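Bumping with the actual sequence this time:
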Amino acid sequence: MTVLGTRALNRATLARQLLLDRAGMPVLDAVGHLCGMQAQEPQEPFTGLWSRLRGFDPAVLSDLLTGRRVVRTHLMRRTVHLLTADDTVAWRARHDTMLRQRVLGTYRREFEGVDLGELAVAGRAVMADGEPRTMAELVRVLAERWPAPAPRALGEMLIAALVPVAQTPPRGLWRTKGGVRNVLLSSWLGRTIDPPAPDGADPVGQALVRRYLAAFGPAASADLRAWCGLAGLPAAVAEIREELVSFRDERGRELLDLPDAPRPDPDTPAPVRFLPAFDNAILGYHDRGRIIDDAHRGLSVAGERVVLVDGRVSATWTVEAGTVAVTPLRRLSPAECATVAEEGRELASFLSDGASDRVRVAASPS
C-alpha cells in the first residue's frame, strides 16, 4: 500500500481546502465544498473565505445569511457552524444523538430523571411561533416545569441539541455585532429537516464520508470522527469502501480517499495563507501533524489565528489598531518574512475596507 508522507498529506489538505490556490467558485459553493465552516466567532468565516476565494466579497456571504441560503447552527462536534441550508436540512437529524450525548457529557447529573423527548416537544412548542429568542428567554419559559437543571444546562440542551434552530442575523453579518437569537430551522428555512432513513440504512452517513474526503482527505476514520463528532460511521465507510482508495501514513494508519481527488506533488509550492480562529483545515483531523506541529497543537483549540508558511502553521496573527501583527513560531527566512508581510498587507486592506495596509512581523524566535 502506498505510503503518503506528511508533506504529501499537507499538499493534499491545502488543495482540498482551497488553500493551495485561491478558487474562483461562488461563495455558496465554497461553503458547501468545505462541509461548512466553524463559526462560533461570527467574523472568522469571512477571513477563512478571503484566504480561499479569488475576489471574495464579504457582502455576498452576508446576503446568503439574510437570504437564508446559509445558516448558523450547532452541528459538527456541537460547535456553531456556517453551513448551506441544503446541508443543514440533510444532515441535522443524523447528528441528533451525538448532540444530546455531548450535552449530557457535561451536564449528565442535572438531567437525571428528565424525559428529554418531553423537553424537546415543549421547547419546539415554545419556538413554534417563529419569534427569535435568546437561550435565556427560552429557558425562562420552561424553567418552572424543569427546575432541576441549572439555566445554562437547560439552555444548552434545548438550543444545542433538542431543538433544531438557526441563529438569526444580524449575528454573523460582515462587520456587524449582534447577540445570539434563535429561531426554529423549519420556520427559518420554510422546510422541514430530512428524517432519518426508515430502513436502517445510512445514506446521510455515506454522503458525509464522501464529502469529508473531498474536503479533507486522504484521512483516517479517526480523522472523520474528530471532524464530525459522530461515532457511528464505520458502517457507512464499509458500505462505500469499494468506491474508495487506500493509503498508509508514516505511522502505519490506513487513510481513505476518493480515487479522483487531488493529491498534488509534495514539492508543489504553497503560498502564505492567514487562517481565522478555529479553522477546520486544522481542527478537521484527529492527527493534525500534516499541518501543525504537536508543540503548537493547542493554538487552534485556544482560538488563535495562525499563518501558514510553506503549508504549515508557522506564526500567529492578531489585529491591533488596524495593523496586522504577526508573531512567528519558528525562525522565518528573510524571503518568508517578505511573503508573510505581503499577504498581511492584503489582509489588513481587506479587514479595513482599504483604509489600512499596515503589517508588523515580529522578530523570529531564536
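The C-alpha cells above came from a reply further down the thread. The chain has a mean pLDDT of 96.
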